[in-house]
Each structure stands twice: as structure tokens, then as C-alpha cells.
Amino acid sequence: MGRFWSLLFLMVPILGVGLFVLAIAGTELPGLSLRDHWLPENINDGGYIIDDLFNFIMYLTGAIFIATGIALFWFLWKYDAAKNPNPVKFVHGSHTFEVVWSLLPAATLLFIAIFQMDAWANHKMRRPILGPGPDGIEHTADDELKPAMVEVTGRQFEWRIRYAGADGKFDTPDDLHTVNDLHVPVDEDIVIAIKSQDVLHSFFLPNLRLKQDVVPGMKQFVWFHANRTGTFDIVCAELCGWGHYKMRGQISVESRENFDAWFQDEFKEQGRTQLEPSEDEE
Known about the structure:
5 helices; alpha+beta
């Protein structure tokens, strides 16, 4: 009976790995479609870095999972009580094994930390710039950072979105407001300021491989460069209360011409008048 349970245990990694492989391949099964079930289409120029990091960690941990499952099965099978009449011999421990199984995970985590540095820098540190600073060299501390095009505020249970008007400043009479409806132009660097009005939220754009926790009292910035048009999901990836399930919006990526037309139409619908930029701002 013991070996029956060892075989049953072996089915866990086999079925688990099999489903992962089918999901990655987008296999169609009778009554079950795994197509696009793994990762949604990436539309961000820098999104491939996140995909590469995700796949690397998955393959690494997957190999460890398979090796561990096989080792556990082997021990269950070899040392089944029904097939081993000899008394069990207990071993107090092995300092060598303890050192090995402490150093191997530590080395693995250190390698992952180094491997992901480019992904972290690209999505958290290398904010788009308008141009080099006084030293004339790009990607130095005095670069002129690109300002936020739009401000997104998480609130139970919606995303409040605000665009600066013609004066280019937030919190002025010509601001444009929407709820759960974000529009951005395609093929441009987009910077978004994000914050929370009440509790912890997580601003997640799956197709742009962008996710950032939104912390009350803290304004943060995220950025991306969308390379195709279309309408995609905005979701909250942090349990933020009873209405978390409905905190969903959409982001529309469109041409600059269509974006400008939408922007003007929204101003008219909201009954606002654009302010002409002052001479100082020009």
C-alpha cells in the first residue's frame, strides 16, 4: 500500500508540469482552451525584460520542483515499510548536508537578485527624460525627467484619472477627469503619477507588464512605451476591500491624432474651457 501512495505522490509533479507545458504552448483540449492562458500579449517595448525574468525564474524553480519530487518519490518507493523489514535507523543530522542545503538556496537567490537588476532598473529607475541636464550627458543625475502626463488615484473601488490641461499643471481649473478610463498615445514614452486616496492598492497593466503598489500618502511614478493600439485591462492586484473584484478599468492606446481628438471631446462634454498657455510657459 505504501508504494501505491508513492506512485500517487509522483502524479503531482507529472500533472503539474504537464499543465504548465500545455499552458505555455497554448494547447487546445476538448472542452478546455489554454490559449492565451499563460501571459497576455505584451505591448510594451520594455515588457520583454519582465517576460524573460518571469520565464527564467519559472524554469529554474520548475527544475528544482521536478528534482525534489523525483527525490521524494524515490525515498518513498525505496524505503517503503512493507518492503523493508529491518528496523529504522535514525540519524541525528549532518553538518555537511545542512551547509549544502543552506548555501545552495542562498546562491540561487543571489544569482536571481543579480539577474533581475536590469529589469528593476528599466522599470523602477530609468525614467524617461526630456533631455540631458547641464552636463550635456544623458542618463546622469541632472537629466531633465519627463513629467507625468496623467495622474491615477486608487480609491475604493475605482481608478480616478486626471489629465493636466493646456497649462500643463495638475490641480488647476482646466484639468480633465475620468474614472476607470485611461487614454494614452501609442509609440510615445508615457509617465503616470500614481497614488492612493484611502488604502493600499496595486496598479496593474497586464499587457504592459507594469504593476506597482499604490501606497497612501506616497506619490510614485511608472512609465511605459506602448507599441500597438487597442483597449486593454487596468486591474487592482491588491486585496483592498469587499469591492476589490470590481476595481477594474481600461486603457486605450491610440494614435496621437485620435488621442488629441478624444481629449478635446472630453473637455467639451465636461463643460470645461481650455486655458491658453501663458507667455511665461511658452
